Fold:
Amino acid sequence: MLQDYLKRNITYVRISLTEKCNFSCEYCLPGGWDKKLKDTLSVNELDILLATLKELGVKKIRFSGGEPALFKDLTKVLEITNHKYKFESCGLTTNGFNLLAKAEEWYKAGLRNINVSIDSLDPKKFFEITKVDILDKIIAGIKHAIHLGFNIKINAVILQGINTQDMDDFISFANTHKVTIRFIELMQNNTCTVDYLNKRQLTAETIIEDLKAKGWTLDNSEDPKLKGPAQTFKHQDNLGKIGFITPYAQDFCSTCNRIRFSSLGEILLCLFGKKRIPLRHLLTLEKKEELKAEIETLLISKPKSHHLDENFVGACDNLSKIGG
Ligand code: SF4
Structure:
C-alpha cells in the first residue's frame, strides 16, 4: 500500500489525459485553451503508468482533463484500466459534450462512474459561464447514462451572484433523477485570482445549514477506501443526493488519499503543491521498477495540506491543466 509520511494511504490517482477543452468557463479558461499544447502521454505510456499504479496497490483511477473526452484514445484507455488491470473503481470527469453519443461505448469499456461539470441548469446562465450552448444535449446524455446504469455525479462550482439562486433547481433535479449533485467551493489558482474569488466565492456552510434545516442528513454509504473529498447528504423523500467539496474547510486534507498525474507525465503530490515533477522519462517497460521506487520516495515529501488560506496556490496555474 502506498503511504505518505503521515501514514495517509494513497489509494486514488487522478490522471489528466489532455489540457484541451472545448468550453471556456469564466473561472477556468476564460480565453479558451492554449493552442500551443505539447503532446500528451501515449496509450502505451498510460498503460505502463496504470500497470505501475496497480502494482503499487492503487485502487481507484479517475480520468480528467481539460476535457478528457477530447482525448482520441479515451475508450482504449478505459478498457486498459477496467478490463486489463481491473482497478476497483474507475471514473471520468467530463463536461458531458459527447456523453449522449459515447455512453454505451464507455460502459462496454468498463466505466461506471461519471462526474459531469454543470454550473447551472438554466440554459442562459450555462451559456454565460461556459460560452457553449448545449445544456439540453448534456442533460439528455445524463438521462441516457443513468438509464445504462452509470453512477452520475453533477459537479457545480458555487458562483456567488451567478448560480447561488439555482440551488433549488439542482435539488429538484436530484429529486427526480438518481444523481448526486456536488457543490464545489471556488478554489483560487493562478487563473482564478483573488479578485475573482472575492467577487464570486461563497463557502458552502450556509447552504449545508439550510439543507440540514430541511431534514437532510449525512450519508456515509460510500466505501472510505475509495471515497473522494466530498461530504454527502441524503433525504428520505429524495431520489438523489447532495454533496459538498469544501477545500477551505478545517481539516480537508487530513484524509487526503490522492495524487495526480498531468497529461505530460508530471506527478503532483498535492493539487496546490509547489512542484510538478516530470516522470515521463520513466514511462518505459525497462524503467518500471525505477518508476515505482521514485513514486514511493516522492511520497515522503507529499505536503501535509494546501495553504489556500495564505493565498498560496503552488504550481496550480489553472484547473484545466490538471482537472481539479
Ligand atoms: S489540497 Fe493537497 S493535501 Fe489537500 S486534499 Fe487536496 S491534494 Fe490532498
The chain has nine helices and twelve strands.
